[in-house]
Amino acid sequence: MYVMHIPGMKLSDWLKANGKSAAWLASQVGRDPSFITRVKNGDAMPSIAVAAEIQRITNGAVTAVDFVPATAAITSCAAEAGAAA
Known about the structure:
Distance between the termini: 13 Å
Order of helices and strands: HHHHH
CATH class of the domain at 11-64: Mainly Alpha
Strand content: under 5%
Shape: globular
Number of helices: 5
CATH topology of the domain at 11-64: 434 Repressor (Amino-terminal Domain)
Radius of gyration: 14 Å
Structural class: mainly alpha
Helix content: 55-70%
CATH architecture of the domain at 11-64: Orthogonal Bundle
């Protein structure tokens, strides 16, 4: 059985709604502000550790799974389904 993930809030939306900047978030996770800006814009993917830290900081509004491209999730599910057959 597979549980479908319902996407959370986009990082850019969370930052805007909470009056926070990429520089602020970068200081919280110990990364360069330019990297967080690229993550926010969808141009970079954070490590699992950074994604988990963002999830913690946003109280789960932005989840680690939200950073996985939708096509990767679909491919992964299809591969798992094929392996289970």
